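Q: I'm writing up a methods section and want to include an example of the input and output format. Could you take the sequence below and give the corresponding predicted structure tokens, formatted cleanly so I can copy it straight into the document?
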Amino acid sequence: MTGVLDLLGPIVLIGLADSINPATIALAVLVAAGERPRSRLLAFTLGTGLTYFAGGLILTLGPAALLKTLAQHRPDTRTYIAAIVVGVVALGVAAWVWRQSSETVTKRLPTNLGTRGAFGLGAGMTLVDLPTALPYFAAIALIVAASLSVAAKVTLLAAFNVAYIAPLLAMTAAVALLGPRAAPVLVRVREWVEQWGNKVLAGITAVSGIYLIVYGTLGLA
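A: Here is the clean output for your methods example:
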């Protein structure tokens, strides 16, 4: 029977790959500009993370779980096959992302948001991005295919989302520790992500894909 620890590594890796989102990080830098940057950035992070987690929870325990009950394959076999399929897809996505140029975010976005506005911006942006969140869907497919309790599934989903908001949490901590001195650091972070974000995302995605293919192949063997 597949356990939480068996899937924790690939789930976290996929979450880290998904977190390297130039648009999200650039937005976070804009949110951190102006007064009370720490509270606004924390609100933006919570809006992003809670919305993403809620969407994944609905998919994991809702229609995805229903699809699982319709499948009559052995749980472990289904898990290993899903891992190989997701791994192959991840390698294809990594190759495609590597050839793309990093995204940039328009400078017309508001920078004078309050705490509620920052939370709403994070939640709204996440809702828009959710239908195209292929790494998230891949992680959910692995979780659903495994023979796990509801609590274990929620734990893995939470681990993914913590990894997903890790850069935002790091930025919030930097703002809290450095205060006004964090502004140039955040700008450099945004510039670095805009230049190298797609390469890092592709690399982590490729590592995740290789891990899943090896894991699934050994499991079937």
